[in-house]
Amino acid sequence: DAGVTQSPTHLIKTRGQQVTLRCSPKSGHDTVSWYQQALGQGPQFIFQYYEEEERQRGNFPDRFSGHQFPNYSSELNVNALLLGDSALYLCASSLGTRLAVDNEQFFGPGTRLTVL
Amino acid sequence: QQQVKQSPQSLIVQKGGISIINCAYENTAFDYFPWYQQFPGKGPALLIAIRPDVSEKKEGRFTISFNKSAKQFSLHIMDSQPGDSATYFCAASGGGTSYGKLTFGQGTILTVHP
After folding, report:
1. What one-character-per-residue DSSP string does B66-87 give?
2. Do B88 and B35 touch, CB atoms closer than 8 A?
């Protein structure tokens, strides 16, 4: 049973550029959440996708956007990169319903983004 | 706004000892409290979780204690092993449309000496 997979593993960009990160959820899961983890900190919630729609969003600017595909995989896009966007970006998958989501979330290995 | 406070920031324990990590939360709407273990270069892995209808949950060497009135919960690792050396995060979620939005503590770096 494949767990949550993310690509790429590492990425180096320069300020002002745009980046796209990808995530495939655990088999049987339909909900994808994205988190940003700065060095030495706990993960911070960015947003969550269910049924191809953004269901809820954390305190992140509009430069952060996402998408969910019919096969439940997801992308995270960040525009106009800033030095402060350097972090580990984590994808977590879970099983959702229209009203709520099973709280149990499984995380992928993350994508390490470095902005120079 | 920090809603989950975790302590200590770091912890050193001898092999066979008990590791205790504490968390406190503010949002009374939280109704799910997981603990995650993270090794360097890896994503967080779910260790054990509890809901507020029970005061304690045990899985192997790991136990969560939950105090709803104090809005606190803790992780106890019994018979700590060097392989337990990792960063541990408490988290919380719940409350209407916030289901699935995990709010994490700052993390505790656990080192278990052989």
Report:
1. EETTTTEEEEEESS--GGG-EE
2. yes
Question: Cβ neighbours of residue A107 under 8 Å, at least 6 residues apart?
Answer: A4, A35, A90, A91, A92, B36, B43, B44, B45, B46
Sign of CA dihedral B10, B14, B15, B21: negative
Task: List the beta strands (DSSP E) in chain B.
Answer: 4-7, 10-14, 19-25, 33-38, 45-50, 56-59, 62-67, 72-77, 86-92, 103-104, 108-113
pLDDT digits (tens, 9 = 90+) for B9-24: 999 999 999 999 999 9
Contact B100 A101 (CB under 8 A): yes
**A23 reaches B (C-beta below 8 A):** no
Q: Structure tokens of A34?
A: 């994205």
Distance CA A43, CA A26 (A): 19
Q: Is A100–B100 a contact, with Cβ atoms under 8 angstroms apart?
A: yes
Pick B101's closest partner by Cβ from A4, A41, A48.
A48
pLDDT in tens, B33-63: 999 999 998 999 999 999 888 999 999 999 9
Mean pLDDT of A63-79: 97
A42–B106: do the CB atoms touch at under 8 Å? yes
B42, B97, B100 ranked by CB distance to A103: nearest: B100
